[in-house]
Amino acid sequence: MEQKKRRENVVAGVVGAFLGSLIGVACTVIIGQMGYVASISGLVMAVCALKGYETLGGVLSKKGAAVSAVLILLMTFFAHRLTWAIAVASELDWGILEAYRSISFLLERGMLESTAYWGDLAMLYLFTLLGAVPTILGGLRNSGTPELPPPPASPEAAAAAGEADFYPAGKGWLRPLRFSLLFALLPGLLTGVALLVTAVKRDAPIPLSMAALFAILSSFVTMLFALPISRINQAEAFLFVRAAGHLWQVNLNALNAMDTYRFTEKAVRLRAIPWDRLSPAEQERAKASVLRAISLLTSGQVLPGSSLSLVVLPLTNFELVKEDRWSWQGLYSLQNGRQKKIRIAKAYPNFAPVYGLEPPQEPVSHQWGLCALALVLALILGAAGYGLGALLDGSLPGGTASPGQTSAGQAGSSITARTPKDAIHRYETDGVYYLVDSAFQATGINEFHDSVTNADFTLTVRTGMDEETAVDTLLQPISDYRTSSQYDYFQFAHAGSEETLVPLAAADGTEYRYEILTLYLKDGKAIHVGAALAEDGLLVTVEAYQKSGGSGKKSDDVRGTILFMLENLQRTGTAQVEITEENYQSLFHLAEELDYQYTAAGYIKAPYDMFGCDAFVDAHVPYSDSPVFLDDGYALRSSAHGMEATVSVAAGENARDVVDQTYAALEASGADIDPEGVSDTTYFEEYDIAVKQAVYLDADGAMPRIVILYADYKQEGYYLSAQITYLPEQMDEDYPALRLELSSAYALTLPEIEPLTP
């Protein structure tokens, strides 16, 4: 029955330690979310967990201390990781569970600052250690009520009780032992810190950080081995007394804290009162207080189990068990008939707990054996941690690599540019030339469909961007699909790289830094994003939506196409100049780079919310000497050779909605619209493109006008809106060529209208 009861107490103690550690977790998270360094919460974690074990388990035993130490280590790591996961989830709009699982991956990709992450963890463990050591020592110190010695049998014996021998600790006698015990805690901590620094420098956090965690754990294990001998380090706080044939241990600090026994004003609760620092008068008062306490305890005037009996502790029926170079170990009687162990340091000159023993003549020696044990434990546990981390990271046989990590590196190493077998078409947008397989079908401005891989490609160009924006662009599909039931996994082309973006030299010599992300869906589809960032802030993004074959060879072909397009980028003359508020209107030019002779390329301002920054969108209109920028630069109009085009960026639910808005604005303008000349809105849902044709008379009501309303997906919630109007009376011999160029620019088949002759 006794064994069963003890087992139940251990279980209750573990529950208490777990509940206490949850307080530490909450403290760590709350302090972290307030924007402060949460290191101090490590102390809270240690104290709450150990006190929780002691509260529910009844007593903090060595077994309880060991179990609690392991739990503290694990919960501290969990709390720290959870704090960072909450920050990541808030920044990237992810779920907390997904962010928690992605911490290691984000660290490897350099998307989280490794130095800050591992440095915070090291500080958290340091404060945890500072809280655990004194709590464990205090919890193991006292248990059970001492048995009081019998009262004097005669008046002569009572008189003899007033005579006593006092044995204070020798000054500096424990210094060698204290130094060696402190030194024994360093191998684990220093090894752990060194491994953390190495993990940061080598960008390999999982195996090395696990090795660091286990190395730090060795300090806790060493502390448990050192507990029996480390308690004798408190010898200066105790005074041993022989009175009336009995041995007493006096806690000087605790005795001085009792008002009626106070003997000095030097007392502080967190520091021992060294006997040698007391003045002769204070020493005499201390002796008098001790003798008075002993007299009360032996006369029966103090009830058994009182606080005084724990402060002036009677070592009743003391029996010596064994001794070593640093201490004597013995047993004394408790009130319940049992015996309790006590360890007495050999730090008291001319004192031995039992008559006949030789008192120590010099300070205790160092304990270098414990230091050697600590070093061995640090190496063994560190190696074990590294092996476990390697298994978790997939670096050893039997480990499983999570998608997007090791598997991404293997896939990335096999990606090669997919060079078209036949003809290549060159296109220009926003001052950048790019090449596309002539077999691809143009479905819109900078949009193409590849029937072989069943993928739709879209190329966009932005200026004034930075690396953070480029990385956000790469991660956007993860944010879009993370909650979808079809989400499977994602991978980067260069998962093993130390940098998030890797170098890429384009065809014209421009140095870019790029990466390609592929996100796989369970239904066989895939989303690919390639982003290349130049030093001057030019960001070229190629997105591909693959409708089938995402997990097979076709996926490699799509990524190869993206790589081909990025490798063959060329800057036009205007691309060398950053597009700004001050110069964008002056960059209106004939689009000779696209072999156009009548169509111009210009730039209009994009709504700030479209990209989250000041940006510009290219627009193709008939080339003329007098283009008109409308709506404060958010729209461009130009006419030549009998055709006019007005281009802007419009917000809408889809392309159909944008076209219908434009038509409603045409009606509201008072135009004399011919109902029979108005077509239904044609909407290509697959490409999010819409077209509508209308016929109306000009403001004078004399000339017919045919207008093509067009909207094309540009960015989430934003569309390129074009209004192409025929001016039959102004058509000349260059009109047919201009119509064909505009058809090419907008990937439309514009109707052929006969000119009006005078």
Describe this entry's structure for a reader.
Among the domains are: 408-576, Protein Transport Mog1p, Chain A (3-Layer(aba) Sandwich); 584-745, Protein Transport Mog1p, Chain A (3-Layer(aba) Sandwich), CATH 3.40.1000. Strands 10, 11, 12, 13, 14, 15, 16 and 17 form an 8-stranded antiparallel β-sheet that branches. Strands 22, 23, 24, 25, 26, 27, 28 and 29 form an 8-stranded antiparallel β-sheet that branches. It has a 4-stranded antiparallel β-sheet with strand order 1-2-3-4. The protein contains 18 helices and 29 strands. Helix 5 (114-139) runs parallel beside helix 8. The chain is α+β, with helices and mostly antiparallel strands.
